[in-house]
Design goal:
By secondary structure, this protein is an alpha+beta fold. Helix 3 packs across helix 10, helix 5 packs across helix 8 (480-496) and helix 6 runs antiparallel to helix 8.
Length: 689
């Protein structure tokens, strides 16, 4: 139980120097010059604990002095005693000075006995956030309570980090039982209900596999990296070109008939050069289809290869945007601007997108005089393959279009922020996360229109089973309207099953599918639920997103804090508590997720299936939301509070690690010690049972 302190020993030195005269003489016997005591300080947390001190004497030449008999004493025997061999034993709480001496030379060390008996007192459903205890402080004490008492202990990094900060230090949580039998040796008393593992889902209720999700995940990871590069480029352009070169503000895009349609072909730049120059000639793009809000064009050379989306495919996208996308963009983000005055967003299907899904380029919001590669208007650049995938039942193109329309809105608002805002853009995780909110909310509204739950209701497995597929009882193909809901569940699963994970970026070593799309959406979905009152009425949380997107609001964390009135550190603590609470038997409580019961909604899905595996697929990650690091191989999420153990792993920026601990009722509890945690890490403790 002892823990070592920084050097505290106070050494008293007396030195005697012996010299001979020039005429010679005898050299006196060596004397003790100094004494070193180890450890130089020790701290224990229980009365009756012993620590062995040792001493060594040295001559003036620095050589060990053999055969020394040392005397030991304690300045306060009521705190700690010490015998002739240097064995100190704690007697009471406090601090005593251990002195070792020989031949008039002495050294000292501090022996402290810390009172760590004060345990957290939490009722079921209560939680608390604390700083990481220092090396010389007591750890967090969880009481033994009754057999079956259950706690979740989360580590969360709360300091905002740059989107390219891939730092992921290793942290450790040590569980030290206090006067208890080990959990494996002390079974739960008869009649006490033991927390169970995540139950195996009946195979008859397992929801069908959606193989397109794996492809979507791979595309999302690469697109996220592209968007982060474009985000960095946008910051450079804003700093270099300045607000004076932003294209003149136009009205918001509104629906309604126009005097005339856009032409059958247009000339566009698709170089997207970092220096904003026009690379090569203008490309000719041919009209595929248009309505009153959006016009779809495709690069004529690509279209000639036969890699050509049909009018029916892009019309399906436009209809989805008209009925569900634009209303969400208007309500949540204040609408899409119409700076070029043509009343439409122009979608250019171009091979320049490569293997990515789609993107908006910030250069289009600067004048061509300052940015020769600018198309000076509202453009979205789209992958032809993503549209053609509709033929395979892959409906990502529908909600992705809405995702990109949100970028049209927020990028223009960003470049129109006041000139004294040095960096006008939201961080990439917030920008992409809020665009995911747009695509997901459009899908929730669309899904409700075909029988799914209302946008303000909590999604559970039964909703997916009944209304997620083209036929009842999860038969047939996935509904286009539901795809944008399923995709977010897939991405949040990839986020929290990964260790390490991170809100602000994808740390090195993260699992497949982890991206700022999933992390940003999960956090902002919680923010809308907890601070926007999302459960109150359909689209009730729109106000906070619209406020954060406004050009008058500071970008990033500062603007978020101003809108919701809470410091970001506290938001991260509340978020961690909500992650740990969701899907437990506890009532939702304040500041909880209300849009999704993630345990129910995710665990029936084939990509998450581990008990049993699904339809011949490889098993998903063991266990269920929030996938504690204490997970056993059988899917049991908890370990014994009375089991001495250390749980170590890496944690990214804004990352979270959850530990699930259950008491067997013996002893006085356990001390939770944390080491290696970077600045800004907080410990969040939630009592479940």
């Amino acid at each position: 139980m002892n823990r070592f302190r920084a050097p505290l020993a106070l050494v008293l030195v007396t030195g005697l120097v012996a010299c001979s005269d020039d005429g010679g003489g005898t050299v006196p016997d060596p004397t003790i010059d100094r004494i070193e005591v180890t450890p130089d300080g020790s701290s224990v947390t229980e009365v009756g604990t012993s620590v062995q001190f040792a001493a060594e004497a040295f001559t003036t030449d620095g050589l060990p002095f053999a055969g020394v008999t040392f005397s030991w004493s304690s300045s306060d025997p009521s705190v700690g005693t010490i015998d002739d061999t240097g064995l100190a034993t704690s007697v009471g709480f406090g601090e005593t000075t251990i002195t070792v001496s020989a031949s008039g030379v002495s050294a000292q060390a501090v022996f402290s006995v810390r009172d760590c008996s004060e345990a957290l007192t939490l009722a079921e459903g209560e939680w608390v956030a604390t700083a990481v205890p220092g090396d010389e402080e007591c750890g967090i004490i969880l009481p033994a309570g009754a057999a079956g008492d259950r706690y979740r202990v989360g580590l969360v990094r709360t300091s905002p980090a740059d989107s390219f900060d891939f730092d992921r230090p290793e942290v450790s949580v040590e569980v030290v039982p206090l006067g208890a039998a080990n959990a494996s040796a002390a079974l739960f008393p008869a009649g006490v209900e033991v927390p169970l593992a995540a139950q195996a889902v009946q195979e008859s209720r397992r929801l069908p596999a959606v193989p397109q999700l794996s492809e979507a995940a791979a595309r999302a990871e690469s697109t996220a990296r592209l968007h982060q590069r474009l985000h960095a480029q946008a910051i450079e352009l804003a700093e270099r070109l300045g607000p004076e070169n932003v294209i003149r503000p136009g009205p918001l895009l509104t629906s309604g008939p126009l005097a005339q349609d856009l032409p059958g072909s247009i000339q566009v730049y698709t170089g997207f050069e970092r220096d904003c120059q026009a690379a090569g000639d203008l490309d000719t793009a041919t009209l595929i289809w248009q309505n009153d809000q959006v016009a779809f064009y495709q690069d004529e050379d690509e279209r000639a290869t036969g890699n050509a989306p049909t009018a029916a495919q892009v019309q399906r996208m436009a209809d989805f945007a008209r009925d569900y996308g634009f209303p969400v963009i208007d309500e949540y983000f204040g609408g899409v601007p119409d700076n070029d005055g043509n009343g439409k967003v122009i979608v250019v299907v171009t091979p320049s997108v490569g293997n990515f899904a789609a993107f908006v380029w910030s250069g289009d919001y600067f004048t061509a005089a300052s940015c020769p590669g600018s198309n000076e208007g509202e453009y979205v650049y789209f992958s032809s393959s993503l549209i053609l995938d509709q033929d395979e039942g892959q409906w990502q193109s529908l909600e992705t279009l809405v995702h990109e329309f949100k970028h049209n809105s927020s990028m223009y608002n960003s470049v129109n922020r006041p000139g004294n805002v040095q960096q006008p853009y939201h961080p990439a995780w917030e920008e992409e996360g809020s665009a995911e909110i747009a695509g997901n909310m459009a899908s929730r509204v669309a899904w409700a229109a075909v029988g799914g739950p209302a946008p303000n209701e909590t999604v559970v497995s039964q909703d997916i089973y009944d209304h997620g597929f083209s036929q009842p009882q999860a038969q047939g193909d996935i509904r286009p309207e539901f795809y944008g809901v399923l995709l977010r569940l897939f991405r949040t699963h990839a986020y929290l099953t990964s260790q390490p994970n991170g809100l602000f970026t994808t740390p090195l070593g993260a699992g497949s599918g982890h991206s700022i799309y999933g992390t940003g959406w999960t956090f902002l979905r919680w923010l809308g639920d907890a601070y926007g009152g999302a459960s109150g009425a359909p689209l009730a949380d729109a106000d906070i997103f619209r406020a954060m997107n406004a050009s008058a609001t500071l970008p990033g964390v500062a603007g978020m804090e101003n809108v919701v009135g809470t410091a970001f550190r506290e938001l991260m603590e509340e978020y961690a508590a909500a992650v740990m609470r969701n899907g437990t038997p506890l009532a939702a409580g304040p500041k909880a997720f209300t849009s999704y019961d993630f345990v129910s909604a995710i665990e029936d899905l084939c990509f998450a299936a581990d008990n049993p595996p699904c339809q011949g697929l490889a098993p998903g990650p063991t266990g269920a939301w929030p996938w504690p690091v204490t997970m056993n191989t059988d899917g049991t999420p908890w370990r014994g509070l009375q089991d001495a153990a250390t749980y170590s792993g890496r944690i990214g920026g804004g990352g979270i690690r959850v530990h699930d601990l259950v008491s067997n009722g013996t002893g006085t509890g356990a001390e939770i010690r944390v080491t290696g945690a970077p600045a800004g890490t907080r410990v969040v403790v939630l009592r479940i049972d």
